[in-house]
């Protein structure tokens, strides 16, 4: 499923109309009927429903929804919040059809009229403004939205909460705070941004008849769902052996922070890696080995419990490498990152302290022939790009794409919506996971899952997307079963991995 900007969604609409020949009135009919069908399944006919219809396609959808609900004996009222001259084209056609079918449209004269009407109903359907809106809502619509936010008991937005931008990079807006949004066609970028996603409430996508042959040349973003996971997760052969599932290396940890590499190694083994070696400071090995008996160990030289560069690491002995967890930021650790870039001929995954060291080595990253995967959280990504965190979060898709293309790397930008980007700019988003993951060590577990997935027989992009799906889904299943978002620990995720496999594979 695509994730689109407003412009890309319009390209698809126009393609359906101009290339395939589907009338715009029919697309609007389909969209409105799909939303009404969703409502009919869940809403009692005793509920009073108010549709607030604006101009443009969003308002037209509102008239179709109102007519469909009216035909099914729902108590529905329509208030048109723009003057008659703003209702044109397909929206005007569907307004007239609604009236001809027995509906009544009240044209708002002043905003003061709207408040009492909202207070008398159970559901407000927000069809005021859609993805075509430019800039901040103007009066009187801004005041209408203010009344909705203050007085409505339940708000369902059509396609997008009115006033909310569809695209990233916009912070100046005032929008409806929806309880629920039924998105038509494809989810928009703003559904996956930290500062705009909360306005959607709970959301789902409804179809409105776009043919499968219609695509957008500019849309290279996809939602990675359970369906994609089931289709792409590699099967384990009946006659495979430990070498069939890869030999991985994890480099990191110290006497003070043995837990980070412990969770990475354990997660890689639990996810299905054939063989995993932990390279860490010698004094940290007993602590790690007590938790990971199935791993092997490579003792590195150390100074004050932290790894140094006295002993070389045989990077070419492995099929994939992850580095950085608990490594520390001292200069001797950086030399291991540099040597891995120069010597390893397999995929290299860099996380945590490794990203700090990598910043000074970015110029050499693009020279590597084998894949490099960076797994930053927003703070680390901002550090790599010399941006502020708020600046990065305004345009995470754009910044991740720019960095991936510039340095020829894969980027896993972690967050409530994890964005995975390839060196050629393709992007996927995973939405599994919950606030219970906001704890130290969660990223270390993800690094181990990524290592295991990269070791399997699948393209890197699929491996990264599946790893993020497993990580988040493990947290979701644990919260649904035995834990809460408060008590969930990173180490609990190790047991959640098996739940994911048993459920979906």
From TrEMBL:
Q: Tell me the Gene Ontology biological-process terms attached to this UniProt entry.
A: metabolite repair; nicotinamide nucleotide metabolic process
- Which residues bind AMP per the record? 414-418, 443
Listed PROSITE patterns: YJEF_C_2, YJEF_C_3, YJEF_N
Keywords, comma-separated and alphabetical? ATP-binding, Isomerase, Lyase, Metal-binding, Multifunctional enzyme, NAD, NADP, Nucleotide-binding, Potassium
Its UniProt entry gives the catalysed reaction(s) as: (6R)-NADPHX = (6S)-NADPHX; (6S)-NADPHX + ADP = AMP + phosphate + NADPH + H(+); (6S)-NADHX + ADP = AMP + phosphate + NADH + H(+); (6R)-NADHX = (6S)-NADHX
Q: Which PANTHER family match?
A: ATP-DEPENDENT (S)-NAD(P)H-HYDRATE DEHYDRATASE, ATP-DEPENDENT (S)-NAD(P)H-HYDRATE DEHYDRATASE FAMILY MEMBER
**Gene name as annotated:** nnrD
By what name is this protein known? Bifunctional NAD(P)H-hydrate repair enzyme
């Amino acid at each position: 499923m695509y994730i689109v900007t407003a412009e890309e969604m319009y390209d698809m609409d126009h393609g359906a109309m101009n290339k395939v020949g589907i009338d715009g009135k029919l697309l609007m009919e389909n969209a409105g009927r799909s939303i009404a069908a969703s409502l009919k399944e869940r809403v009692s006919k005793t509920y009073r429903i108010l549709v607030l219809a604006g101009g443009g396609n969003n308002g037209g959808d509102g008239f179709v929804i109102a007519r469909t609900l009216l035909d099914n004996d729902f108590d529905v009222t329509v208030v048109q919040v723009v003057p008659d001259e703003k209702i044109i084209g397909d929206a005007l056609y569907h307004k007239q059809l609604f009236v001809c079918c027995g509906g009544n449209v009240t044209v708002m004269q002043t905003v003061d009229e709207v408040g009492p009407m909202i207070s008398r109903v159970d559901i407000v359907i927000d069809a005021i403004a859609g993805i075509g809106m430019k800039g901040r809502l103007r009066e009187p619509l801004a005041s209408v939205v203010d009344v909705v936010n203050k007085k409505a008991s339940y708000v369902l937005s059509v396609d997008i909460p009115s006033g909310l931008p569809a695209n990233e990079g916009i912070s100046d807006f005032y929008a409806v705070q929806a309880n629920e949004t039924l998105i038509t066609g494809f989810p928009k970028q703003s559904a996956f941004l930290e500062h705009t996603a909360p306005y959607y409430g709970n959301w789902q996508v409804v179809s409105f008849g776009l043919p499968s042959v219609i695509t957008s040349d500019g849309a290279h973003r996809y939602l990675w769902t359970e369906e994609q996971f089931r289709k792409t997760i590699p099967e384990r052969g009946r006659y495979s052996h430990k070498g069939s599932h890869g030999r991985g290396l994890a480099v990191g940890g110290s006497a003070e922070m043995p837990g980070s590499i412990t969770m990475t190694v354990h997660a890689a083994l639990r996810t299905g890696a054939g063989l995993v070696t932990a390279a860490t400071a010698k004094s940290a090995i007993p602590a790690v080995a007590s938790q990971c008996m199935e791993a092997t160990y490579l003792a590195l030289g150390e100074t004050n419990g932290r790894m140094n560069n006295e002993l070389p690491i045989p990077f070419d002995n492995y099929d994939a490498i992850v580095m950085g967890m608990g490594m520390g930021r001292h200069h001797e650790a950086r030399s291991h990152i540099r040597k891995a870039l120069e010597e390893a001929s397999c995929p290299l995954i860099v996380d945590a302290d490794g990203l700090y060291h990598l910043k000074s080595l970015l110029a050499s990253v693009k020279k590597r022939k084998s894949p490099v995967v960076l797994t930053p959280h927003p703070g680390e990504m901002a550090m790599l790009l010399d941006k502020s965190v708020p600046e990065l979060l305004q345009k995470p898709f754009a910044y991740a794409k720019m960095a991936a293309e510039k340095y020829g790397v894969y980027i896993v930008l972690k967050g409530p919506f994890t964005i995975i980007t390839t060196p050629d700019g393709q992007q996927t988003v995973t939405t599994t996971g919950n606030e219970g993951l906001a704890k130290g060590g969660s990223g270390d577990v993800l690094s181990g899952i990524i290592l295991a997935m990269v070791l399997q027989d699948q393209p890197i992009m699929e491996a990264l997307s599946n790893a993020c799906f497993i990580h988040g889904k493990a947290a979701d299943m644990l919260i649904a079963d035995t834990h809460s978002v408060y008590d969930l620990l990173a180490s609990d995720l190790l047991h959640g991995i098996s739940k994911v496999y048993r459920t979906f594979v």
